[in-house]
Amino acid sequence: MWSVKNSYKNRFESSFYSPQSLSLFLSPKGKAKGFFDSTSPENSQNLRIRMGNCVPKPNKSLSEIAPSDFITDTTVRLYGSASSTLISFLRIALQYKSVAVKFVPSENYGLGNSNPILQYGTDTVTGSPETLFRYIEGKFPKPKLFDEFEEDGIEFDGNQGGIAVVVKIQHKCMLYYIENLVKWVEDLNVRGGGNGGRAVVDVSMGSPVMEVRKFGRSYSQLLELMLEHAQMEERILFPVFEKADRGLSKAANEEHARDFPIMNGIKETIKSIGVLDPGNPVYQEQLISLSSKLKTLQEHCEEHFEEEESQLLPLLEATEISGEQQDQMVEQCLEVMEGTHSHLFHFLISGLLPREAILYLSLITKCTTASNAERVNSMLRTLMTRIDSTVCPSSNRKPSQHLLAKYRGTPTTPSIEDGQMEKSDSYKQHDDVYRV
Question: Where is this region: Disordered (predicted)?
């Protein structure tokens, strides 16, 4: 079992994590679990549910909580401090659940304690972070945010620390975007070669010139993320391995150097396509070249990431760095990957499945010291606003405005029932519709 080690005394006080909730529980098989794996009587007693006029009632287990289908008022009311990290986290979790939230800023939460208060129908819930998230997960089960990762989730080997998890999650995000850019350029190829050499316009993307410009903007975001990720590994992760065994990260460094020219070449090819007439034969040739380069990059990244995850990251425990040092590495990651965790933060989170996103947010929050507390709070608040602008939690929910949404292999307009999105049979597909 991997859990956060040692002292949390220096962790910022605005963090909502208690020493108990800071643990990221792992099953014996090494799969990540969330906040809800502890079922001790103490945690059960923390679940305070009051009905009607706040008259105390006996504690209830989650199985006794009425499912949301039986509650006519589908709006969750949340009371707490607007500057609270926990409040931001709760609102993001509810956004993933497609639940309408009415936030009421309040420094005096009531009920005799300073914990946030969540009201839904006749239920009023307060208590520890585990209590609140446990209630949300039980009341709104789709999509799961804190249960075990399933077959398409992130698997862990041994007692890997937070930095290893961060690296793996970023790998999944980058592979997701590369895959969808490959699909996008293939679609451009098909439409660009039809109709007697004239491009077939996708009206949702605008004119061919507009679409290529949008494609270039999406790739530029991915490129910045990939470059910062490589820099983070070279400055934070690889030195740890080199100190333990000189030359251990040599192959990974060489692969970074190998792929930089390919990544820059893709950028230049996109620029070339952007100034060509879609009816020009060279336009089609450049699209084919772009497709080939992207597929090469995809193959290299899949191979490189697999090698890092199977050969390098499992050795992190053997370096004998402490849990506190690994937490510090996560915080250093935020500083080195400054762009990724500022203007690209929504882009990063949008490339993750809900449980991956929640785990990532949990890690960066718990590993942040007082000096970066306000920055992380700001990141969460900005992310919450961005999600709110692209996701409408109602029966009139708009499809995601993300440019790559149509290349996810899932409908861009998932069906809605009782405020919950309907999942398809395929795991990969049914979780993909929950990306924000």
Answer: 392-436
d(CA 325, CA 327): 5
Kindly state whether residue 422 falls inside one of the protein's structural domains.
no
d(CA 209, CA 291): 17
CB atoms within 10 A of CB 309: 19
Domain-embedded: residue 413: no
Give me the DSSP letters along 225-242. HHHHHHHHIIIIIHHHHH
- Please state, in angstroms and rounded to a whole number, the distance separating the CA atoms of residues 241 and 315: 8
pTM here is: 0.74
Half-sphere exposure of 159 (CA within 13 A, CB side): 14
Q: Residue 22's CB: how many other CB atoms inside 10 A?
A: 20
Residues 381 and 303 in one domain: no
Shared domain for 207 and 348, answered yes or no, is yes
Note if the bond before 143 is cis, omega within 30 degrees: yes
Has residue 410 been placed in a domain? no
Q: What is the pLDDT of residues 116-161, one digit of tens each?
A: 999 999 999 999 888 999 999 999 998 888 754 343 444 444 456 7
Does 271 reside within a domain? yes
How far apart are the two ends of the chain, measured CA to CA in Å? 31
Q: Are residues 244 and 329 in the same domain?
A: yes
Instruction: Give tens-digit pLDDT for 91-116.
Output: 999 999 999 999 999 865 554 557 89
